[in-house]
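Summary for the funding panel

The consortium committed to producing paired sequence-structure records for every protein in the target list. Below we show the first two records in order, beginning with the earlier of the two.
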Amino acid sequence: MKKLINIALFFMGCLFVTSCGEDNTEVPLHGLNVLSSKTNFGPLGGTNKIAVADQAVKAYSPADWLSVSTAGSEVSVTASENNALTSRHSTVVIKSSELDSTIVSVSQTGKVLSVTGMPKAVNVENAGATLEYEANANSPLQLTCDSSWAQASYAKGKISIDVAENNSGHLRSCYVKYSNGLVKDSVYVVQYNLEENILGKYILQGIDPTNPTNGKYPTLTFNSELVKNGSKIELKVDAFGGLTIPVTFEPSYPYIKIDAGSWIGKYYDSYLALFLVNENGYFTHSNSYYLEGLVGYSAKYSKKDDRLEGTALMFVGSSGYSYLNIESYMEQEYTSDYDEGSVLQLANMGLYRLKDQTTHE
């Protein structure tokens, strides 16, 4: 009895053997033979043919991404575009009668895209440039750019980004997006010259959260300047006899970052230190906390205030609090014995570049 069961299972398994491409093993259920077939599809889909030895009176597939039609002994199989990352598989059933049938397997590859060496962000000098990155894709790529000064294309296995010369007088940026089906990514392209478009005179502005008047917090404004000192960049602020705040500048994705814990100036006989807010809402000099802002350009700033060029950044805090506190100490040492208290607090700070770089007003 066990032997008979095994034989029966063997024949049931044979009924489900399917075929694929030119090398398919088509299994005629009652004698319908496949003469030729091409049923491997690329990701874009298309129509392929299956030829059988008799007139095909009926053909169908259980897959909604396949459509099937018959014409004599020829069966047309049409696959829709496969935007997924993975391949997919199904079958086509062909009948010349209720008794004579065969099953042919069908497969379609998913879309593939890999790009070598492309960063998430790249900076280009004002002279312009052409950027090229090796790309492996099995169908044409879709590329878009949200500016007219950068154009992206794909040919011969490479993504090319042509960046025109920057004569705008200010930093500019855009996103180049590329995709192959569901595989999507982008690169942030920013174009500027550090000395011409980033360094220079600014206005530092924020609100004083300690001194509300009629329920409103006063806005405080300070003349400021971003300067290069050797390999370092500093923010000079015209307050308390002059403050020098060390900053970190990231050129490709141009952030300006201010860490807590710096000694930033001396006012009379006291030393001034920079404190920021931790996640618990307390001021700290720990350099684990920082303020950071992305340098960008918007004409709305110059329209609102004709002194401004349009290059600006808004600071956000690593802890979620955009607060800065300047603390005074008798000695350059963080001890409560020397602590003289806060001399300035600022919240919601912004840095705005001036149109006239010759002097502050």
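The next record, for a separate protein in the list, is shown here:
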Amino acid sequence: MGQKAIFFDIDGTLWDAANRIPDSTKEAVRLLREKGHYSFICSGRTTAFIRDENLLSLGFDGVLAGCGTYAEYRGETLVYKRLEQELMEGTIHILREHGVPTIYEGRYHLYMDMEEFAKDPFAQHVKQVLGEEAYPVAGHEKDMEISKFSCSTRGVSYEGVLPLLSENFSLLFHEDNCFECVPKGYSKATGIQEVCRRLGIDHEDTYAFGDSVNDLEMLSFVRHGVAMGNGVQAAKDAAEYVTAPLTEDGVYRGLKHYGLLD
């Protein structure tokens, strides 16, 4: 078997809602390295929010982050999209006018005004994990470094802002009261395409594991898309194969199905 490249979403794929990684998943990533295959994180999170050592220490060859707006291979940056300042300031103004709570996501920091979020559990989690590195938007409008952003729809009339955002961003709606805004022309699929081009990986040798709406393009693009058994139906529909849920050794069993651990 030749060298393959496998791309893994984080949330709902590599770990659960409490950031627990199954032992079988850890073993699977180790075996991929032993077999000489490439393995990559491929997340909607930007790198500012991919810092858990239990995750990073598993031994991935690289990270694709921010829905394809960033990619690195063994420490070398291959892709990096930063939103233009004028567009960013205009977007902040629009979202404030419509009262839509927003987390702006960058390579080094996340930006959010906590008073917008009340008791939103995800915002509270971000603040807990990043502490002082979760910067306020207020006062940083002129120097924010971001690649994408996520908007809360919890108790918010947000529909009026959608046409204003859709000109420049692809909007990805999740079932848990939020949507992601990714600059047009970027996705997990475009990130994978560029990594494979740079590393000389044939499309026939690409695999991806995901569970969510921001995984759809990735699952459709690679030769072998694998949806987690706990994933949304749209992910299952986009995939070639549906494996077991994360907590039932889904990653390990999916890799075994394709003979990648043998």
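Regarding this second record: The first helix runs from residue 23 to 34. The radius of gyration is 18 Å.
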